[in-house]
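README: folding subset

This subset contains proteins for which both the sequence and a predicted structure token string are available. Records are stored as plain text. Below is the entry for ENOX2 protein (352 residues), shown exactly as it appears on disk.
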Amino acid sequence: STDGGRNLSLDSIPMGLPMSDPSAWATAMNNLGMAPMGMTGQPLLPDFDPALGMMTGIPPINPMMPGLGIVPPPIPPDMPAVKEIIHCKSCTLFPPNPHLPPPATRERPPGCKTVFVGGLPENGTEQIIMEVFEQCGEVIAIRKSKKNFCHIRFAEEFMVDKALYLSGYRIRLGSSTDKKDTGRLHVDFAQARDDLYEWECKQRMLAREERHRRRLAEERFRPPSPPPVVHYSDHECSVVAEKLKDDTKFSEAIQTLLTWIERGEVNRRTANNFYSMIQSANSHIRRLVNEKAAHEKEMEEAKEKFKLALSGILVQFEQIVAVYHSASKQKAWDHFTKAQRKNISVWCKQAE
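--- output ---
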């Protein structure tokens, strides 16, 4: 439907609309001028004002001219959009009364890409349905019922919103006024297993990505694991034996030796090597004892130093307290003001 493909624009009907079917076009234009009657006897377009063409400074409409000739002013984003007539190749869609409340819809199912379309003309074919709804986006499938309804599945979720825009429109096939060639579209969200399955797959994928992202973030802040201890071999044994003799590398080497013994690396062939490494470890005990003695000596010296410093501090404290007591005797006390006496008393208590 190349003719109607651009007509879903909410702002205006394009000026250069090709005339696909002159009789359908004439019917549509006549309807604009003389509010057409529907099946129930109600006007299809009760709010149409024939003088609208004059307001825009354009001469009165010729029903056969290609293009409507009415270009309404652009709609501010906060105002409700005025729905326009939509022309397709084999049918015409007339907008609902703008004063009526918008058609009710059910709650949108998660991941909805399928719509229910009711109120189709009895003579409406799958081709006509495709012509009307492919303007909303790529149609994946149409499941038509023998009754006047069908289900349409789109490629993307946003296309469903475009299809819902057509709800309430009256559809007329060609220029016919036969009851079987007219209908009022009712478009609503439909629950489809395929949509739900795709949506659940998408949610699971997003959850997997989120877990992966969290894991990466956690690993970034986790401290690195210590390198694994190598398995025993004659070469590694000689390396560890050398490290056991070195005071700076002793801690690392003794941990390796312990791991080897716990792993069960000791056997008849390796026993002598392990014995010599244990002997090397034993020789460090003398060094550790000497280090302990040296630290104890340092601590004793520090204690003596602390005692000397503390006794010096206490002597000075006693001297300061003696000054307070001396100042509190009658001979000196009478010469101080009340505030000075109060301060001296407080200082004396704090020092004691």
